[in-house]
Write a structure and sequence with these properties.
The protein is 46% helix and 13% strand. Strands 3-2-1-4-5-6-11 form a seven-stranded parallel sheet, with helices on both faces. A two-stranded parallel ribbon has the order 7-10. A two-stranded parallel ribbon has the order 8-13. The protein has a domain of 266 residues: 3-Layer(aba) Sandwich (Rossmann fold). Helix 5 crosses helix 11 and helix 8 runs parallel beside helix 9. The protein is an alpha/beta fold and 435 residues long. The longest helix has 31 residues. The protein is built from 14 helices and 13 strands. The N and C termini lie far apart (73 Å). It is globular and about 60 Å long. The structure holds the ligand O=C(O)[C@H]1O[C@H](OP(=O)(O)OP(=O)(O)OC[C@H]2O[C@@H](n3ccc(=O)[nH]c3=O)[C@H](O)[C@@H]2O)[C@H](O)[C@@H](O)[C@H]1O. The ligand O=C(O)[C@H]1O[C@H](OP(=O)(O)OP(=O)(O)OC[C@H]2O[C@@H](n3ccc(=O)[nH]c3=O)[C@H](O)[C@@H]2O)[C@H](O)[C@@H](O)[C@H]1O binds next to strand 8. It comes from Oldenlandia corymbosa var. corymbosa. InterPro entries: Epimerase_deHydtase, NAD(P)-bd_dom_sf. It catalyses: UDP-alpha-D-glucuronate = UDP-alpha-D-galacturonate. Its main location: Golgi. Pfam families: Epimerase.
């Protein structure tokens, strides 16, 4: 009752209207309060049901989160830390200590294995997502484990995990290869590109800029940033403001984000524009890989052609050449200049094309595969769909040649021969096949 009095004495709108104290008004007030309480309960009930009782199917994100919180508790596990430290142990003089993101990916596996072979310390990080056959990623992981590289299972968006890794090991370098790849898939699942290629990159750079010492970072950009550029061969100085796919746009955004972190925090950053990388242990979503699978299965393949029956061509680049470019980038990367999250001076900022400098038409890629597989392909020629693909790519590599000593040595015929040999030994002669 005293509370009621208090309410009664306060004008609802100061200076405007004072409520009369008649019994009718009191009854109206009681009634309104009862109504208000009733509807508040209904409202809270609905909210409760929506958040806690909703039988909606678990989204990949919610399962990710629960997995992540489970894993967070294992970050304090001494055995886990021991494995990481053992994997990061440098075994050569002047060797580096590298965090490789996307280590169970195609390029990540090859780069990690090459670094380990020469005595660098490596810790891998990979979220093992299901963009393509996860068993292939697990097989790559097993391969790396045999050579002493441990892959931590986690996402680059997991800042707590990244911090824990940097607390455990003083990484001198980060080889950032984790990404949502694929040009055409960007129309199906655009947010996955924003999640990995933009948000994930920012999470990683945030942790790197605060690390002491700050690592030097080498990361995977893409030839797709040239988009609709029609000047060939593509040079790093050419325009890159006309991306043809969301994938390309997120990689281009990555290059701009790299500029910002270099400018504000003194992070040393090198972006590598890879040109259609192929080879053993490759990505099943790429044309050379699923063409091989489909030719062996006797399934029809689609070969795209440009306007007016124009040739669609790619500057296909063999994995071993790309690995050499990655290692040379790490070796020539200057130290970051910041510490404690503050820039101390200008730092290195580089972008390089890593291509093969000799584009090959997709129809020729298929001819080579037919010869190597000794099977005639069932081909359908179709117009290049409007799905983010560009008609051709061709790298000018003079900058990488000059600064990194990069010189690709594997032509498509030789590289595909190695790929096919691996494919047949991994999947068997078409009996067990790629998904
Ligand atoms: O350099 C890059 O930055 C990118 O390279 C790769 O993209 P792309 O060069 O598009 O490779 P990929 O899909 O193998 O298609 C090869 C060719 O086959 C043609 N193609 C494709 C499919 C098909 O059914 N038919 C066909 O003709 C198609 O038109 C194309 O001409 C990576 O996937 C990408 O993640 C990114 O790293």
């Amino acid at each position: 009752m005293s509370q009621m009095k208090h309410i009664d004495n306060i004008p609802s709108t100061p200076g405007k209207f004072k409520m009369e104290k008649s019994p009718y008004n009191r009854w109206r007030l009681h009634f309104s309060l009862a109504k208000l309480t009733f509807w508040s309960f209904v409202f809270l009930g609905v909210i409760f049901m929506f958040f806690f009782r909703s039988p909606s199917p678990p989204s990949p994100h919610s399962s990710d989160l629960s997995r992540r919180s489970l894993r967070t508790s294992s970050y304090d596990d001494p055995a886990w830390e021991k494995r990481i430290k053992a994997s990061a142990k440098v075994r050569s003089r002047n060797g580096m200590s590298v965090l490789v993101t996307g280590a169970a990916g195609f390029v990540g596996t090859h780069v990690s294995s090459a670094l380990k072979r020469r005595g660098d310390g490596i810790v891998g990080l990979d979220n093992f997502n299901d963009y393509y056959d996860q068993s292939l990623k697990r097989a790559r992981q097993a391969l790396l484990e045999r050579s002493g590289v441990y892959i931590v299972e986690g996402d680059i968006n997991d800042v707590a995990l990244l911090k824990k890794l940097f607390d455990t090991v003083q990484f001198t370098h980060v080889m950032h290869l984790a990404a949502q790849a694929g040009v055409r898939y960007a129309m199906e699942n655009p947010s996955s590109y924003v999640h990995s290629n933009i948000a994930g990159l920012v999470s990683l750079l945030e942790v790197c800029k605060s690390a002491n010492p700050q690592p030097a970072i080498v990361w995977a950009s893409s030839s797709s940033v040239y988009g609709l550029n029609s000047k060939v061969p593509f040079s790093e100085k050419d325009r890159t403001d006309q991306p043809a796919s969301l994938y390309a746009a997120t990689k281009k955004a990555g290059e701009e984000i790299a500029h910002t972190y270099n400018h504000i925090y003194g992070l040393s950053l090198t972006g590598l524009r890879f040109f259609t990388v192929y080879g053993p242990w490759g990505r099943p979503d790429m044309a050379y890989f699923f063409f091989t699978r489909d030719i062996l299965k006797g399934k029809s393949i689609q070969i795209f052609e440009g306007a007016n029956h124009g040739t669609v061509a790619r500057d296909f680049t063999y994995i071993d050449d790309i690995v050499k470019g990655c290692l040379a980038s790490l070796d020539t990367a200057e130290k970051s200049t910041g510490s404690g999250g503050k820039k101390k001076g200008p730092a290195q900022l580089r972008v390089f094309n890593l291509g093969n400098t000799s584009p090959v038409p997709v129809s020729e890629l298929v001819n080579i595969l037919e010869r190597l597989l000794k099977v005639k392909a069932k081909k359908t020629i179709m117009k290049l769909p409007r799905n983010g693909d560009v008609p051709y790519t061709h790298a000018n590599i003079s900058s990488a040649q000059r600064e990194l000593g990069y010189k690709p040595t594997t032509d498509l015929q030789t590289g595909l021969k190695k790929f096919v040999r691996w494919y047949l030994s991994y999947y068997g002669n078409g009996k067990k096949s790629a998904q």
